[in-house]
Amino acid sequence: MRTLTRLLPKLAVGLVMIWAVATFTFFLVHALPGSPGDAAYENYILSGMSPEQAQAKVSSIYGFTSHDPLLVQYRGYLWRLLHGDLGQSISYSGVPVTHVLRAAAPWTIFPALAGLVIAFLVGTSFGAVAAVKRSSRWGGLLSMSGSFFAGIPVFVLALVLAFLFHTEWNLLPYGDTSDVTLTPGFNGPYVVSVVQHAILPVATYALLGYGAWLLTMKSSVISVLGDDFILAAELRGLRPRTRMRYVSRNAILPMFTVFALSIGYLLGGSVLVENVFDYPGLGNVLFQAIGARDYPLMSGAFLLITVAIVLANIVADLLYTVIDPRVRR
Amino acid sequence: MTDTAPQAAAAGAFAAPLASIASAAGSAASAASAASATPETEVLVRDLTVCFRTDRGEELPAVAHADLTLQAGLITGLVGESGSGKSTLALTLLGAVPSPGRITSGSVQLTGIGDVTRLKGAALRQVRGGKVGYVFQASQNSLNPLKTVGKQLLDLGRAHDVEYLPGLVRRARELCELMGMDGKRVLDSYQHELSGGMRQRVGIVFALVLNARVLVLDEPTTALDMLSQAAVLKIIGQVHKEIGLTTLIVTHDMGVVSELADRLAVMYGGRIVEDGPAEQLLRRPSHPYTRALINATARVTGDISRARALPGRPPDLASIPRQGCVFRQRCAFVMDQCATEEPPLDAWGGDIDNAGGSGRRRACHATPEAVIGA
Amino acid sequence: MTTWRVLTRRPGRVIGLLILALFALMAVFGPYLYAGPLAVDPNAIYSAPSAQHWLGTDFAGSDVLQEIVIGARYVLETAALSALFAAVIGTLVGLVAGYHRGPTDSVLMRLTDFVLTIPGLPLLIVLSTIWSFGQPYEMAIALGVTGWGGVARAVRSQTLSLRERGFLEAARGLGLSSRHVIFRELLPNLAPFVAMNMLLAVIAFIGAEVALFFLGVVPFSSSNWGVMLNQAVFSGGAMDSPAALSYLLAPLLCILLITIGIVLFLDAVDELFNPRLRERS
Fold it and tell me: A220 — contact with chain B (CB < 8 Å)?
């Protein structure tokens, strides 16, 4: 019950945030001078359509025409959004934006999630070691590696990995999701090829998240190690293993904020990762849409990335509530 | 209670007349003075020195050549200002030294265990919590906030290889009831659901649930309000008597130990400067520091106009004099000898009206008569 | 003097400072060192490093070292300006939120959450469709306005912990005005902390601006490292020809070096402001 009362405001904030982003993209795309809707309309007129035809065409793409009052346009946009209708893509001539996004989403979500899990496992363990051994040389090096990977720009990482493992050592394939000569489906060579192609993007995502996990875990463990109850556990003769469990469970709590931040970072970085590795995910869709001035697709992709991050925040909060009794009751 | 000590039963008849200060737990104290006739040693600290190494590589002693005997069945109070080394000394009973300190000489003998400073690993773990129960200075925060008290109790049981865990739970509930708490409720609670005084008592339960023979309480009342303080003190006295423990109370507050303790040891600058039976020491302090400490505590003298603040500040590790008496800079009885020669902690005949066998010791160049009579 | 001792305790920290100094010098004096336009030599396309071209040449035969040195000013100037904007906005928001608490705090923190939640790079890319912010100060405004969330949150929590220490109550008890308390009491105490966050922001902003040029979504107003990377990867075919190694790696290594420099230097700053770390090392 308490969980619900705690979660509801978060949900409300998330919804407001999604609404705000939707409104932002709406005004960005439709209401600014030289709106793409107007431009498209004029193009259709120039190409010989009648004004009615052109208006109908624009309306089918954007969901309204710029001849309506702004408020009507906005209401129409939100109404369609509520029904999961993001309009039609221009560059994929007439395909609904949702279809394009649905096809692209797995190529972002799975590599990013795999990278997130790896980064979490490695980052938190190394962070704990870095905290316990913080006065030794190894501890120092580990923290340094955390700061380094937390600071290094996404594309630098992606390019260096691609250059080293593909161009220089020729160990791994690079570009696209699999070998194009293979038939997609559940057959051995194709699956192997997909996995091989995924290694570098996943590694990039993992290294991207690693630093934040390590650094936060380190400072969290240091602060828990200084807590009285850990000393108490030692002086009550608890086993070192039990004490380590006490430390890790208490230290892991602040990690949920990193989870949310990390998701945002990874999804934001997907534009670059997918660009370098030529991966057909959401980031790449967003990038291509901008190149093609495909505004419905652009705002759809941007909105979806934001929604994913908002949802991740809510999930993180839910997990936090489950693990911390002080919040639960 | 299966463990009731024989000493506690022999209470009463021989009780020396108590000073006005001994009150609620007076019966415990009288039991103890009776027992002191046939002292049995539970803990024996010999020549213990604990040093901290500084950045510059110097070794600074937090405890220097301390000798302390805890007699079975008695409550001993270890009194001193913060930084006097009293907590460090108490921790060595568990074979623990706060880092970066280390024991450079001496031993801590526990009856039936041996020298605890030489123990390691599993053997040391068994002493901690098993033989010696320790209640923390910040006992309110001595519990894992993410686990119920009961689950932490089970962790404790497993760590000490308790074969029958339900028995442990029953014992914990008994102890809870003994301290005036609802055992079942407490075990089902998280730390944040308990009040400060309750957490303190849970700390005592954890210290005793494995049938520890020795109970060490580090500043048991500091963080509590006056009412909880009184309640916790009363409980400590009761539990001590009923279970027949050997108890060490570490405190800066003379008032706390004056009500409870059978014997007192006073620490200053890492040295034990005086010890002996509590009421003798309180009535006739023979060391200038003890005297000043008692005079500074209005609650002990009962007369606020007679309370005297001690001039100067307590020394920290770096400012303790390396030579001579550690107290001389604040001492009213200082003489030339004090600057060069550190006074040894010597047995002293004792009180004028209770000569012989009192077990009093003092470390001072001034004569006891001069200090007591002043 | 503690500062100096902490800095020199580990050689890495001095190295970090030296790296940062080197790049700062490059940004200030680089353009004077190589005055005039970039020389193009069709006979020396992708030539290997030599005495004449220390880092080799690019696809048009231009000297890579010269491009790096000239490009440093844009990259660093923009990053520094962005960090300054972000620090100013973030500090103001964090300070006000932490000082006033209550509803002001809630509103400002929701706003901060909002800024933090919206993914920075996609937002900038989307923004680039309506505003081509290629000039250094324009780029800095775009980055600063979208990137102050982290600073604001950090400053707020620091402000709250300063409150805990009670000297705010003391200052107000003396009848000092809010403005005095904020600017005279809080800000000086926060300054080193803000500086630390600014250094961190510089790393992030270098990444972001170079990424935007690398993706090619902002117009190439001047030669800089991002433009170099874009041309190397997308038109220079550097990913497939090992001969382009130095052209591709030079800007990447510069960014890595700056990152390392800041990280090494921050290690010292961190120890200065986190006594808990200082205690044991």
Answer: no
Q: In what order do the strands lie in the sheet with B59-71?
A: B59-71, B41-53, B101-110, B114-115
Q: How far apart are alpha carbons C195 and C190 in whole angstroms?
A: 9
pTM: 0.78
String of DSSP letters for C4-48: HHHHHHSHHHHHHHHHHHHHHHHHHHHHHHT-SSPP--TT-TTPP
User: Does the beta carbon of A132 lie under 8 angstroms from any beta carbon of chain B?
Assistant: no
Percentage of residues in chain C having pLDDT higher than 70: 89
In angstroms, what is the C-alpha Rg of chain A?
Answer: 24
Question: Nearest by CB to A156, which of C123, C240, C252?
Answer: C252
Written as six digits, the tokens of B350 are: 């004792």
Cβ neighbours of A223 in C, within 8 Å: 276
CA distance C39 to chain A (A): 27
Flag if A290 and C118 touch (Cβ within 8 Å).
no
**Rg of the Cα trace of chain B?**
20
Tally C-beta pairs within 8 A across A and B.
74
* Residue range A106-280, CATH number: 1.10.3720.10
Orientation angle between helical segments B149-159 and B196-208, nearest 10 degrees: 20
Tokens 């408020």 map to which residue?
Answer: A71
Q: Could you tell me if B154 lies within 8 Å of chain A, comparing CB atoms?
A: no
What number of H helices and E strands is found in chain A? Answer: 14, 0
A137–B contact, CB cutoff 8 A: no
Q: What ranges do the domains of chain A cover?
A: 106-280
Q: B128 and A324: CB-CB below 8 Å?
A: no
- A324 and B CB contact within 8 Å: yes
Q: How far is B221 from chain A (nearest CA, A)?
A: 16
Q: What torsion do the CA atoms of C147, C150, C156, C159 make, to the nearest 10 degrees?
A: -110
For B211-348, strand residue ranges (E) read 214-218, 246-251, 263-268, 271-277, 346-348
Q: Tell me the C-alpha to C-alpha distance, in Å, between residue A20 and each of A27, A31, B332, C118.
A: 11, 15, 75, 10
In DSSP terms, which residues pair with B128 in a beta bridge? B132
Q: What SS3 state is found at A143?
A: helix
Tell me the residue ranges of DSSP E strands in chain B. 41-53, 59-71, 75-79, 101-110, 114-115, 132-135, 214-218, 246-251, 263-268, 271-277, 346-348, 360-362
Closest-CA residue of B relative to A247 is: B144
| Domain range summary for chain B, segments of one domain joined by + | 5-261, 273-373
Residue B51 pLDDT exceeds 70: yes
Confidence category of residue B20, pLDDT binned at 50, 70, 90: very low
CA atoms of B40 and B72, how far apart (whole Å): 5
Which domains does chain C carry?
73-223 (1.10.3720.10)
Instruction: Name the band, by pLDDT with cuts 50, 70 and 90, for residue B37.
Output: very low
| Out of A229, A246, A329, closest to residue B141 by CB | A229
C268 touches chain A (CB under 8 A): no
> Does the distance separating the beta carbons of C120 and A268 come in below 8 Å?
yes
CB spacing of A156 vs C255 below 8 angstroms: yes
pLDDT tens digits, residue range A127-143? 999 998 888 888 888 98
d(CA B87, CA B78): 9
For B5-261, the fitting CATH number among 3.40.50.300, 3.60.15.10, 3.40.50.2300, 1.10.10.10 is: 3.40.50.300
Residues of A in contact with B143 (CB under 8 A): 229, 232
Strand partners, B272: B267
The nearest CA of chain B is from the CA of A232 a distance in Å of 5
Q: Do B128 and A323 touch (CB under 8 A)?
A: no
Nearest C-alpha of chain A: how many angstroms from B131?
10
pLDDT band at B307 (very low <50, low <70, confident <90, very high): low
